[in-house]
Amino acid sequence: xxxxxxxxxxxxxxxxxxxxxxxxxxxxxxxxxxxxxxxxxxxxxxxxxxxxxxxxxxxxxxxxxxxxxxxxxxxxxxxxxxxxxxxxxxxxxxxxxxxxxxxxxxxxxxxxxxxxxxxxxxxxxxxxxxxxxxxxxxxxxxxxxxxxxxxxxxxxxxxxxxxxxxxxxxxxxxxxxxxxxxxxxxxxxxxxxxxxxxxxxxxxxxxxxxxxxxxxxxxxxxxxxxxxxxxxxxxxxxxxxxxxxxxxxxxxxxxxxxxxxxxxxxxxxxxxxxxxxxxxxxxxxxxxxxxxxxxxxxxxxxxxxxxxxxxxxxxxxxxxxxxxxxxxxxxxxxxxxxxxxxxxxxxxxxxxxxxxxxxxxxxxxxxxxxxxxxxxxxxxxxxxxxxxxxxxxxxxxxxxxxxxxxxxxxxxxxxxxxxxxxxxxxxxxxxxxxx
Length: 435
Known about the structure:
By secondary structure, the protein is mostly helical. The protein is built from 19 helices and no strands.
């Protein structure tokens, strides 16, 4: 196909040509328009809000988190390769707009190191949050980590992006996230009190450890918990029996553990999440002018590849270590046992795909509209809370106070994501280091 033919196609699809660089010839696929950036962010919001639910489901089924995260890491890295060799290789490479493979050979190591640093902290954050889901719960973990990310990461991105986002809109959005954090903490506190009341009112037989699955009507069996049967979810979710049988089935035991453990893990994960997006921002835009003169900035696809390489390496090293030296009193495993554990592997692989493409879409949207606005995907607790309620019965049979707080938190998150997306600007950055 020659340039004239391609230009003709672009004229027939003007809406597409707003988001793709359709000029005199075929060029690398880049999100250019604000509409395209917002579409990327909405897709990223769904993907990044869904994969934690899959990991939580597997942990509740009793699959060791080390096994799950190893599977997840493989497809998470595969997603980066797919993005790099498809979107990153479209069109002919040019000196100021190199394709993915051409850029691998260039002297851009300062930017590469920033991208890899972002991958390291993201890997640590994701790994930590997997354990936090068990202690703090899916919804509250996502609320707290997202809020820390927005308050720290979004503020840093605003200044790194040379203030291309509208401050009068952006920072009220950050404030909405902060309000949602307090509401989320209140939800957790109220729901914890509800669960304690359920257990305290339960029969002494269960308190003494004598499991009798004929009590409280139709009980949740191990098979129910594993398969997520609708009947079990409707009848048993939220009851004391459900909580007790879940504790017996799950991989990470939480009863009797200090709540400070879960909160500490959650805050550590949030701090890690708050740093990966600014690091990626610097990697692709070189705000600190670390590249040599005339060296092109890393494209979002090349940066995402290096980002994912370090994320993958750290995840593999840590999780193989945790197989033989587990944390939080988890049972020991081995690499052989991991290979033999196929139960739930498909779900773990799917989680990695969703997270990989979710991160890629977030970065693609951020390159066009500003990484501060792209951090609107940190409203992913909206999605995670939905899955938490539907799949895991979170907040079932809770008090009216808990329901009111939960509704208020979700409403504030809706406002927050709308405000942050409305603050998006348009980047006009050079492709190469300044002379």
